[in-house]
């Protein structure tokens, strides 16, 4: 089934729920404005079922209605996993076989971001969702720099540690902080390394769009719900095939 | 048990009054029959199907019988007399011929009458045996696949209007945790003086109650019950002008619970009071036999009246519903007495008032699986607020040991529930039950505190109302006539379906009643 | 201010919240499909912040993001009150002055709709939102037919009572029941009355669009939150100016 | 009071242990100063502003002093000595000249030293008098316009990053019911070793804490307080590398509450332990004087550790925070000890566990206005579920008499709060408080029941942990070093800001400390 529509209680009804605030005082015109926005979004009919004045100059709306757009699932672009999922054992074996040394991974939260739970979930032994983190892999050396690492610090550590891969976490996204920081980071690596020697750059965080790797100048983006096993498998895949070729 | 300190004498007094007020109504019910009672009898004898216009054969046949000999004797004797006379080889053919005008009915007498009655009793007996079998089937299936894992039972509504959309939605709801599925009826069905036929796809805000829809949905839920390892119950409405027939169909198709209230039709559908009371008694006798749990409709009072001011009308109606139900043979475990979380959330202490009301119901009817209805009236288009209110409704349910919890939908004020509304609503129930389900262990309203005082106040007002009803010349009928309930005036000689009521003649005969009253299951 | 955008926490940020179900199994593609729908609705970036599988073939989504559309409040069409709001006293005086008899209003819920609370709020003495209903107006005769009135019954009552206005409530809207019933009703009145004699037709209910009067063949549509005073003022305005002209 | 049956001996033992563990830390703090303590002293003496690059004059000046004579004597004597020597007519000029390299500092001796100290004390005394005036101003204003009408105080966050967006949002929030407004800081400010200057519009996920931002927001809220007839409190963070300076600015600009924790900077920002404890003690002395309520940060533990397993670390930290706070002169009413509703909602009985933890805090610190923090960690993009969780969080707040309720946002896992999130969140709080606010009257955990057992268990574990800390060679410092808290290892000789710590020389002099310790308000 490649064409679908939202489903309220009947196939094809197209029903959705929407809420937002308009910076205008509550009035009939404000309600009409809310309906107009919903219409522009493709909702028709659009029922403004709730309008709540907030202070003097704002009104909050809830709108229900039928949206006219069709969703074509064939057109959806997603970053599908293009590497095999390995167990820690398999990953260790693959590293041993092709690198003939431990793989070095340097990670941290850059900029002013101090949300370490996500990167720790990937790196620390404890892991995430029942999977052990990269520290658990015998053939992986993990250097976790923690929170609020500056980009120069990160590059230095990568150079000192001879990192094969650099893992960066970004959780704060207000004013696109995560995008700005990631671009700054990838630019710094481009400057500090000859292209062929540059470690693999991986960023992750709950609000990243996985299709943006190229735009951000990194090799891979991981988002919400990533597990350590996926990251390990990806690293092994990229680093061992690179060596092989 | 017993978080409230109620005066035992008050409780006894309230029950006595309910009996005194209800007794004359039962007498009246016993003295009358209705077209729907007679049609239900024919259905129990196996007559089903409809003519090309969709008019059921039971309507066709009983109309002709009535035209020929009147309703007051019951249709059974004339009908089986005609069959015995060889007018047709079976009931359907007889109905077809009768509508074509090629049969005339008479009142058999003497040996003919005896033979007609015997044949009728045999035919109807088959239907009742079928109901008995269904009951055993249910019990066996529960024993085999398992029952709902805990109380309250989670009760969810489907209401697409199309049985073929309802089925997957009901199955999905069951998979996500519903213990009871209610298929909401199309608007207007309660005023139809016939039960539609076949599978239907064109209801408004609900799906028609038909025998085939019942069958399809029960079969689908049987499948899901087996899949899930717990029996998923099915509910519909034995309400409106066809209450007795729908009760019969529910028994025949193994529905498990039915909405069935003693006064709902009168007050909210302007159905004639006598018609309602007669139909109600018969339908409850069928439910008793079928092992069906009834759900009464006290929640409806609070959708028009104020839930604080009118709290005692709920209690009063619960007491009357209990009296009528027991008189008709229902047992305590079959009494899903209704009440609801409908106090305006803006009223100070509204949550504690709800607790007081819910505890009162729990304590007055300790063995009944009370049915706890979610907020509807004060739900608005603010679906976030609605989701919160439903959570606090669920919490009252957990704190007061409700048997059946109708799951509230955040979109109550907007649409009939979407699939996601149900999913979110179940998640809400689960959170409350899992995180705070045992909070009742820590909940002890002080003997002289707010909650106890309020509960006693409501019980007192309810006793006052029952006394007031009793003081009317003609008791409950007069009280209903002069607007005691919900300010709606419903005189005994007005209202829909009155023309379908007949005072029984001395020779009135109904094999169904005979069996149901004579030989308890 | 005629051009506005939704407001999350900063002027012009355009932020909205959206939720819906797609009839597909949860997967990365399903999440992409959800983002695609949001994009088609004009949200960019669209963050799929929640995806919940429901049973086998459905997934529920919550999406946050920035919507690109502008709302032009000058373009909003609303049915503004084009008549003066009268007190009951003023309304009574106006009726007395121009009709020289009581105004007759027949009302009810048509079709299978049994939701009388709304029409009662307008008609019954008790009223709504602190305003008394039309029964309270000395110069208005109210005939409230209640619930589930058939269209022929309604027309009969209007004729018998010599209704000046007919007030119809419709609350159930599933499958557009309210629109179908209203059209049937207005058609019946057109058939049963010469155009000049037809009573004023007014429908109301929480999900009506007030701009649809013409389409529905009625004189006025009232929606969510209508008060009896508004209705009374409208009737007086229309019936007394009609007489005057 | 006292819903739990705690063993009084246990409670006493816990407090004794906290004192035993805390005492050596206080001693260490007394033996050290930090750049930030010295800069705070200069700020109290009236030095503000920054150079063209934005480096504050207090940093410029103290850096030069330190380069010339070291930090261990305190900057006051060298600075006022230079002024008395006529190097500059005022502090700003002195700072400018110092950064231009045209002043050299010395350690005055004898009469010079006495005169320098006297001048310093006079200058700093003005700042402290200003703080005293602000405190009186607050008290007068509360007396005049009125205070928050009830407990808990409703605490709301604004976090746009732009002071000029924050202001209208804060005013709107106050109008809709907030009693306390917290302006969240930009990420990273805690690691800046200076306090930015001026009104700022470029924070990430929060707005910089600056004196001017404090002033602008306090003025705006004063206006709104008058409009609303209740004093709206303002909060910020005395935390990170500039804790003492921000405390001073808060006192000068009449902020009303400050986030200020004894170990947060160490554990969560990897700030050197000694630096933190020194800065903390000074900042708390300032808060005590300013009549500011501190909010401690125990909630943070539960965002990384499991809220059930680590519940006792919260209690332990509360006991330590209490000890350090009282030692610094804060009174019970100034102790907004933190705790949070962070148990995974999927844990059975999670709501009752939350109740147990919250009651324990309430009963251990009966006079403290506890600060109750909403769920964050288990919030997801399902904003409906989030709204419900926040409702149950509010209910725990109501049942356990919390003083300050940080209002939870349904979009916690999504964005920093939108204007509508706050409005919806306040509606949630209001519903719970109005409908169920008095439910605590009916809530009585059984003496041997689940809630009591759990509370006693947590207290027991907390005593165990304190004993464990005490058993370390170097007590708390060693315990912090070896990962006792939140598994983070923070040795006393590592961490940010260590270079800003100096062991006091025998002739160390700080007029601020002298005044704050010597003459209690
Ligand atoms: C815990 C928490 C904190 C803790 C952090 C403790 C710590 N040591 O990490 C504390 C209390 C310190 C904190 C502070 C703040 N926080 Co905070 N915090 C959260 C919270 C509640 C949970 C985040 C979390 O731990 N998630 C669990 C982890 C496992 O998930 P994850 O990070 O998504 O990681 C997964 C994937 O994304 C991926 N992943 C992540 N990184 C990486 C990296 C790589 C290489 C790979 C491959 C994968 C990967 O894999 C992980 C496992 O699946 C969220 C709200 C929420 N419920 O989401 C707010 C939240 C993230 N915080 C927020 C903010 C604003 C702050 C503050 C800046 C507020 C302030 N101004 O004071 C401060 C300051 C922190 C700072 N300087 O950055 C905002 C961010 C808003 C935004 N979108 O911009 C949020 C969303 C709350 C909100 N609505 O306001 N916070
Ligand atoms: C109370 C109620 C009932 C009561 C009705 C009692 C009665 N005597 O009216 C009972 C319990 C009987 C009932 C039954 C059903 N209900 Co009902 N009910 C509601 C409920 C909770 C409140 C409606 C209400 O009273 N609102 C208050 C009044 C004052 O508001 P109002 O109607 O909008 O009226 C105002 C304006 O709209 C306007 N107005 C309205 N009419 C008119 C007319 C004129 C001329 C003018 C000028 C103005 C005007 O003025 C009024 C004052 O401002 C709503 C949910 C909700 N919270 O909204 C569901 C709701 C309306 N019910 C619904 C349904 C489906 C049913 C049933 C059909 C379910 C079923 N299949 O069994 C049944 C059958 C009823 C039937 N045959 O129509 C749906 C409708 C869905 C839809 N949009 O199609 C709703 C929305 C619930 C839901 N989400 O499923 N219901
Ligand atoms: C007892 C009873 N019957 C019937 C109904 C349904 O309404 P209707 O009569 O329109 O089928 C209800 C409503 O909840 C009810 O409580
Ligand atoms: C005591 C304390 N300080 C500071 C903060 C804020 O973090 P940051 O150090 O990034 O300003 C918090 C977080 O809530 C806190 O509890």
Going by CATH, what is the homologous superfamily of one domain in chain B? D-Lysine 5,6-aminomutase alpha subunit
Return the string of H and E elements of chain B. Answer: HEHHHHHEHEHEHEHHEHHEEHEHEHHHEH
CATH superfamily of the largest domain in chain A: Cobalamin-binding domain
Strand content of chain B: 5-15%
Question: How many H/I helical runs of chain A?
Answer: 7
Q: What is the helix tally of chain B?
A: 19
Residues in helix, % of chain B:
40-55%
CATH fold type of one domain in chain B? TIM Barrel
Please report which band the strand proportion of chain A falls in: under 5%, 5-15%, 15-25%, 25-35%, 35-45% or over 45%.
15-25%
What do we call the CATH topology of the largest domain in chain A?
A: Rossmann fold
C-alpha end-to-end distance of chain A: 39 Å
Q: How many E-type strands of chain B? A: 11
Secondary-structure arrangement, i.e. CATH architecture of one domain in chain B? Alpha-Beta Barrel
Can you walk through the features of this model?
The complex is a heterotetramer, with 2 copies of chain A (245 residues) and 2 copies of chain B (521 residues). Chain A is an alpha/beta fold and 245 residues long. Helices cover 33% and strands 24% of the residues of chain A. Chain A has helices at residues 28-40, 88-99, 117-123, 151-161, 177-192, 213-216, 228-244, and strands at 3-4, 15-22, 43-54, 58-67, 71-72, 103-109, 140-144, 165-169, 200-204, 220-222. In chain A, the strands form 3 sheets. Chain A has a 5-stranded parallel beta sheet with strand order 7-6-8-9-10, sandwiched between helices. A 3-stranded antiparallel beta sheet of chain A has the order 2-4-3, with helices on one face. A two-stranded antiparallel sheet of chain A has the order 1-5. The radius of gyration of chain A is 23 Å and the shape is elongated. Chain A starts with a strand and ends with a helix. With 521 residues, chain B is of the alpha/beta class. In chain B, 53% of the residues lie in helices and 7% in strands. Chain B has helices at residues 8-30, 35-44, 57-69, 76-84, 91-100, 110-145, 163-175, 211-228, 243-252, 264-269, 273-290, 301-304, 311-327, 350-364, 383-399, 419-436, 450-471, 475-481, 511-518; strands at residues 32-34, 153-158, 180-183, 233-237, 257-259, 293-295, 335-336, 338-340, 371-373, 404-406, 501-503. In chain B, helix 2 crosses helix 3, helix 7 packs parallel to helix 8 and helix 14 packs across helix 17 (450-471). The two termini of chain B are 31 Å apart. Chains in contact: A-B, A-C, A-D, B-C, B-D, C-D. Chain B binds chain D through residues 345-352, 355, 382-385, 387-389, 391-392, 410, 424, 427-428, 431-432, 434-439, 441-446, 449-451, and chain D through 345-352, 355, 382-385, 387-389, 391-392, 410, 424, 427-428, 431-432, 434-439, 441-446, 449-451. One pyridoxal-5'-phosphate is lined by residues 185, 187, 189-190, 237, 239-240, 259, 261, 264, 269, 297, 300 of chain D.
């Amino acid at each position: 089934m490649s064409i679908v529509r939202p489903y309220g209680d009947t196939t094809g009804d197209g029903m959705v729920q929407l809420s937002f605030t308009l910076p205008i005082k509550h009035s009939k015109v404000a309600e009409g404005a809310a309906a107009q926005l919903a219409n522009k979004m493709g909702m028709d009919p659009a029922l403004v079922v709730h309008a709540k004045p907030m202070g003097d100059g704002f009104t909050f709306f809830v709108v229900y209605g039928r949206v006219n757009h069709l969703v074509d699932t064939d057109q959806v672009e997603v970053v599908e996993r293009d590497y095999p999922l390995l167990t820690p054992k398999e990953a260790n074996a693959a590293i041993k076989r092709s690198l003939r040394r431990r793989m070095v991974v340097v990670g941290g939260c850059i900029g002013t971001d101090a949300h370490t739970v996500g990167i720790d979930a990937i790196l620390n032994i404890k892991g995430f969702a029942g999977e052990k983190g990269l520290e658990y892999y015998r053939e992986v050396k993990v250097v976790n720099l923690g929170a609020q690492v500056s980009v120069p610090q990160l590059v230095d550590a990568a150079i000192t540690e001879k990192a094969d891969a650099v893992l960066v976490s970004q959780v704060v996204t207000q004013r696109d902080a995560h995008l700005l920081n990631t671009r700054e980071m990838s630019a710094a690596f481009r400057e500090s390394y000859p292209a062929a020697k540059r470690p693999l750059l991986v960023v992750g965080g709950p609000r990243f769009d996985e299709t943006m790797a190229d735009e951000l100048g990194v090799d891979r983006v991981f988002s919400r719900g990533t597990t350590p096993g996926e990251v390990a498998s990806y690293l092994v895949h990229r680093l061992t095939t690179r060596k092989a070729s | 048990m017993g978080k409230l300190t109620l005066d035992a004498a008050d409780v006894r007094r309230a029950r006595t009054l309910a009996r005194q007020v209800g007794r004359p109504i039962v007498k009246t019910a016993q003295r009358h029959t209705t077209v729907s009672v007679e049609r239900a009898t024919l259905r129990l004898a196996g007559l089903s199907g409809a003519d090309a216009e969709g008019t059921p054969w039971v309507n066709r046949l009983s109309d002709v019988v009535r035209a020929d000999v009147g309703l007051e004797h019951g249709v059974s004797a004339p009908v089986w007399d005609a069959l015995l006379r060889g007018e047709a080889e079976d009931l359907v053919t007889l109905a077809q011929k009768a509508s074509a005008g090629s049969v005339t009915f008479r009142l058999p007498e003497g040996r003919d009458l005896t033979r007609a009655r015997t044949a009728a009793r045999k035919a109807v007996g088959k239907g009742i045996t079928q109901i008995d079998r269904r009951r055993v089937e249910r019990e066996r299936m529960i024993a085999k696949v398992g029952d709902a894992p805990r109380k309250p039972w989670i009760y969810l509504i489907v209401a697409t209007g199309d049985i073929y959309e309802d089925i997957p939605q009901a199955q999905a709801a069951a998979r996500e945790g519903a213990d009871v599925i209610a298929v909401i009826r199309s608007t207007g069905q309660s005023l139809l003086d016939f039960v539609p036929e076949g599978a239907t796809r064109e209801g408004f805000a609900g799906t028609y109650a038909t025998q085939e829809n019942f069958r399809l949905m029960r079969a689908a839920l049987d499948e899901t019950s087996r899949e899930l390892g717990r029996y998923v119950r099915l509910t519909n409405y034995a309400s409106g002008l066809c209450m007795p027939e729908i009760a019969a169909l529910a028994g025949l198709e193994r529905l498990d619970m039915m909405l069935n209230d003693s006064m709902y039709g009168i007050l909210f559908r302007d159905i004639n009071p006598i018609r309602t009371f007669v139909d109600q008694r018969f339908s409850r006798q069928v439910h008793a036999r079928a092992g069906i749990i009834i759900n009464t409709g006290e929640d409806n009072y609070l959708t028009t009246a104020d839930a604080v001011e009118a709290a005692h009308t709920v209690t009063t109606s619960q007491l009357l519903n209990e009296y009528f139900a027991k008189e008709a043979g229902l047992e305590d475990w079959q009494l899903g007495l209704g009440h609801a979380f409908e106090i305006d959330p803006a009223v100070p202490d509204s949550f504690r008032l709800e607790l007081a009301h819910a505890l009162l119901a729990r304590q007055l009817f300790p063995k009944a699986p009370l049915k706890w209805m979610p907020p509807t009236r004060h739900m608005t288009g603010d679906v976030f607020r609605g989701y919160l209110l439903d959570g606090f409704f669920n919490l009252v349910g957990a704190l007061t040991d409700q048997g059946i919890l109708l799951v509230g939908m955040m979109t109550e004020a907007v649409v009939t529930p979407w699939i996601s509304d149900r999913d979110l609503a179940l998640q809400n129930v689960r959170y409350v039950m899992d995180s705070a389900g045992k909070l009742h262990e820590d909940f002890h309203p002080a003997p002289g505190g707010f909650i106890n005082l309020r509960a006693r106040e409501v019980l007192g007002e309810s006793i006052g109302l029952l006394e007031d009803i009793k003081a009317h010349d003609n008791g409950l009928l007069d009280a209903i006539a002069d607007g005691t309930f919900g300010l709606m005036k419903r005189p005994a000689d007005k209202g829909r379906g009155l023309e379908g009521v007949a005072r029984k003649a001395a020779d009135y005969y109904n094999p169904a009643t005979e069996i149901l009253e004579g030989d308890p299951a």
